From TrEMBL:
Pfam families attached to this UniProt entry: HTH_1 (PF00126), LysR_substrate (PF03466)
Keyword DNA-binding: yes
Matching InterPro entries: LysR_HTH_N (IPR000847), LysR_subst-bd (IPR005119), WH-like_DNA-bd_sf (IPR036388), WH_DNA-bd_sf (IPR036390)
PROSITE patterns for this protein: HTH_LYSR (PS50931)
Protein name, as recorded: LysR family transcriptional regulator
Residue stretches making up the HTH lysR-type domain: 4-61
Homology family: Belongs to the LysR transcriptional regulatory family.
Amino acid sequence: MSDVEIRQLRYFIAVAEERNFTRAAERLLMTQPALSRAIRALEREVGAELLVRSPGDVGLTPAGRVLLAEARTLVAQAGNALARVRRTGGGPSALTVTASGCSAPLLDDLVRSFNDGDPAVPAEAVVGNAADQLDRLRSGAADLALLRAAPDPAAMDCVLLLDQVHVMLSASHRLAGRSSLTTADLADEPVLRWQGGNLQMMTPELWPEGFPGRPGPVVSDGMQLFAVVRLGQAVVLCPPPAQGFDEQPGTVTLPLADKEPVPLRLAWLREHARPPAVRAFVRHSRARVAAQPAISG
């Protein structure tokens, strides 16, 4: 495995965890054909089939199960080593900013607009699962994270960015011509659910009086989500679109006017070796978010 790259192992882990090439490609912000080619190249490098491919599902071969356990360890060790070197050297390597898929448009907007200002230390965006953001911070794999989970107050600092709940619906929906919606408007609407319950705006603590609407279809990947909405089969609760990002074709995204903004935090380790760079990104992010009409911070 001398020629196998850490990047290839990350790709393999994503496919193994998502059990689907489309979802893994969305998580990695790459195209599905490119991901498939990368996995085939990895299989050639290791000399073994790693995946059992079937329509709608991807499983692991015995060799794949062995590699998955080793790959997770290697990727974690590489991330921790690079973070330690970066902190010790204090060099100009990029700040790594991570977020889950739901916050990917905002993450991309913050990183791109920050880098447009030609900062001394540029930033790079990394998309992961909603559940792994805190682990990325603790291990040093990320310098900052956009997250909804409360960070460890003993080890982390954060700023609060308030995220208005929006509703994405079909452009042909009877409510699509409104400028905003209320929870009462959704009373009879099927509201989309995500398999595994990790759709961030459907977190139970955000809805102490119960979810709006009625239970709608359950989906397992982003392509399916957009298709269901475009066809008018359900609406979905989502974050606001970020600046510079167009609506998904055939959809409209409207603010839920009677719902209080929900917390979205930008967090970082308190004992960070490059506080000026972190502070610069935090200042930029607060100003950028505050300037967006869909979000207040």
